[in-house]
Design a protein that fits this description.
The protein is mostly helical. The chain has 7 helices and 2 strands. It binds 2-acetamido-2-deoxy-beta-D-glucopyranose (2 copies).
């Protein structure tokens, strides 16, 4: 008696804690992955910017003031990526430690309670009253502990519910700083804004530089004297790149005949000439292989930077955090709240069942002894 209820409670508790552990781990993995993706993208942007500093043809290259700006952004991004990485790893480790301890505690509770149920059942069947009393004292201590654990889990359940609500509220009003900053911090606005501005500036300047080379060097028929502008270029004119930005960094529409940065390298291949040892074209063509390589690299960098444009804009308004929270709220919160509820209900059931059993065992053991005495008394008389 009472033991069945304890067993049922233990089964709910055990199943609940397993599912709770899995869903918290999934949530954690998801948030960590979002953070790692962001760091990965930030590092890609860094790589592209670093490449852009080395691009240049003869007297054409990025202005040196821009190289300093790139260095500054480089440092800001590195710092942001490192701090995001540090906080993510710290949080991940802390949360995993807590989860593992909670899991262990709950499994131990379920196991000890099952053992208690078995012992209590056996002892009261055999009427070993003294042992039953010892078990009862032990049982009370355990019940107090499980009730406390139950209260903790009820609180955890409520905190999870509140956090899920807070995420939803944060998504509606993302600029409000809350405790959620500890879960997944936004990149600070200054860094994001500066990075976005510099990537746009680099894109604009690189395309501008390439177009200047095309218009002022490659497409000019060579002057009679030898020099930078004369490398015996000839043949059809090289098409210019489409600059995706105006000088004021607003979006610009491409004109007809302008090349997209993503396929420019492919198209320019047709305009490359063979060169002598002195870098002079020996057949028809307007681009030396060196020029082609540098121009392709510039187009590649611009293409890479525009690819990361939306990502960088997302960093600025913190939408990567918002996306994460929307997904957590939608995909993870229902499970988290449901299974934390299972755990505290399991704990409550086990506690109540053990309490009930304790009373029953005492009564039963006392009655058996009483019956023994009555039998003895009847035999004597
Ligand atoms: C210059 O290019 C033409 C082809 O356009 C070629 O016939 C000529 O040999 C080249 N001159 C030199 C010095 O290589
Ligand atoms: C273009 O850039 C990517 C990185 O964005 C790099 O992996 C690739 O090698 C570059 N290609 C050329 C031709 O420079």
């Amino acid at each position: 008696m009472g033991s069945e209820q304890i067993c049922i409670g233990c089964v709910i508790l055990y199943t609940g804690q397993g599912k709770f552990h899995d869903s918290t781990r999934d949530t954690l993995d998801f948030v960590v992955k979002q953070s790692k993706d962001t760091i990965y993208n930030l590092n890609n942007v860094l790589d592209i910017l670093a490449t852009s500093k080395g691009i240049g043809v003869d007297q054409f290259s990025l202005p040196s003031s821009m190289k300093n700006n790139i260095d500054r952004v480089d440092e800001m991004i590195s710092r942001a990526a490192k701090s995001l990485d540090f906080e993510t790893q710290n949080n991940e480790k802390d949360i995993k430690d807590v989860l593992n301890s909670v899991r262990l505690a709950l499994i131990i509770v379920a196991a000890v309670m099952l053992l208690l149920a078995l012992l209590g059942f056996l002892l009261s069947i055999f009427g070993l009253q003294v042992l039953v009393y010892i078990l009862v004292v032990l049982g009370w201590i355990l019940v107090t502990a499980t009730f406390t654990l139950c209260a903790i889990f009820l609180t955890l359940h409520n905190v999870m519910g509140d956090t899920c609500v807070a995420m939803d509220e944060w998504v509606q009003n993302p600029m409000a700083h809350t405790a959620l900053d500890d879960i997944l911090p936004c990149i600070d606005n200054a860094t994001a804004q500066e990075t976005l501005f510099q990537t746009k500036d680099v894109t604009f300047q690189l395309v501008d530089m390439v177009n200047k080379i095309i218009k002022n060097v490659a497409n000019i028929d060579p002057p009679p004297f030898p020099g930078v502008l004369n490398y015996n270029q000839s043949g059809p004119l090289v098409p210019v790149l489409c600059n995706p930005l105006n000088a004021d960094k607003t979006d610009r529409k491409c004109h007809v005949g302008e090349l997209d940065v993503s396929n420019a390298a492919q198209v320019w291949k047709a305009y490359v000439c063979q060169v002598s040892a002195k870098d002079i074209c020996t057949n028809v063509g307007r681009l030396t292989p060196t020029m082609y390589d540098q121009m392709s690299a510039a187009a590649n960098v611009s293409s890479g930077l525009s690819h990361y444009g939306p990502f960088l804009a997302g960093l600025m308004d913190c939408s990567f955090v918002r996306v994460t929270f929307v997904r957590v709220h939608k995909d993870h919160c229902p499970k988290l709240t449901k299974y934390s509820k299972w755990v505290y209900i399991g704990l409550a059931m086990v506690s109540a069942a053990v309490m009930l059993s304790l009373v029953l065992w005492v009564l039963y053991a006392r009655e058996r002894r009483h019956r023994k005495y009555t039998k003895l008394a009847v035999a004597v008389s």
